[in-house]
Each structure stands twice: as C-alpha cells, then as structure tokens.
Give the backbone structure.
Amino acid sequence: MDEYEVVVAGVRDVGPQTVAMDVETPAGFSALPGQFVVVKAPVDDEVVDRYYTVSSPDTEGTFELTVEVDPDGDVTPWLADREAGDELTVAGPLGDVCYDDGGDVLVVAGGPGVGPAVAIAERAVDRGHSVAVVYEDDGFVHEDRLHALEDAGAAVAFLDETAPDREDALVDALGAHADIGDAYVFGFKEFCGTARDALVDAGVDEDAVHVESFG
C-alpha cells in the first residue's frame, strides 16, 4: 500500500456535524469513487489509522473525503480543524467496491455512505448514464450536490431514518429503481444487509449488488 504526504486544500461544512476535506492529489495517486484511503492522524503522541472513502467523482487535481465529526472522537475533531496548507499522511487507495464507468447505476447510502454514493452518482451522470440514488439518514449531507444530480436528470430519494416505517420506505424505494443497473450500497452493517436483501428480493442479480459496510 502506497503512502503519501498530502496538503489540505480546504475544509467546509456539508451537513449536520459533517465536513468535506479537499486534499491536493499527490503525484502517482489515483482512485475511483467508492475506494477509500487510510488517514494517519497524531493522537496522544501516537499515530492512529482511520479509513475514509473518497467522495469526489475523480482525483484530478484534488480529491475529497467526507468526515462525520464525533465531538468525543479522537480523530474526527482533529480532521475538522485542519486548514488549507496543513499536511496529512494518507495511504491507499483500497477497496474493490468502486465505480469504473460501468453503465447505469443505483446507488444506496445509509448515513455516512452518502460520500461514496454521491461521488459514484456524479461520475455516472457525467458519463451520460442513468442514475438513481436512495439515501437514508436522520440529517442529510451533501444536499446541494444531490439536488444538482436531480437537476441533471438523476432520481434521488431522501428517506427519514427516524420514520416509524423506515424499513418499508427503503424497500419500496429500492424496488422502484431495482431495474436500472448495478447497485452500490454503502453504510453500516444493518442498513447494508436490509438493502441487499431488498434488492435481491426485487430481482437484482446478487452479482450486481456491490456492498461496502462500514462495520
């Protein structure tokens, strides 16, 4: 796994307790949307590894990492405090669940899965493919980019994670778009399992359902 010293280009708020960090792309680095990198952060005189998925559609010039900030966490508050010009150590890219311009796509995101989901959707739309996004959360992130995708012709469903019928709503939304193409699912384990089962039940071939669980 290759390791790089990178420079932060900027950090901005993109939703509730969430920031997007733009990083200058170092020479020799390239990643597809859906892949992730290891960020090596100094914590209490030790170096701690954390994994963050690329949330930009490409890595030309800069690439983006979306970080959900836990105020009590040991790394995310430190990342949120970075400024343009600060340096980071990253390694990667890693991950086999990624989009390589492979046609029409359904992207499914639970919580922090929106980062890679919006990146894949933007890349697919840019390549002229049909796109549907199903996004469940209790406070939405990257809303500007998701609405821009709608304006570009993508179907985007925002689902309330706190709704009493949340699972039925997710199943219905996935069923409505199950025939669009390969499905990419990002989120925590329970969400990913529910989404995968719903897609298979809706007739999507198991080999066309690509899942990246965050634990």
In short: The mean pLDDT is 95.
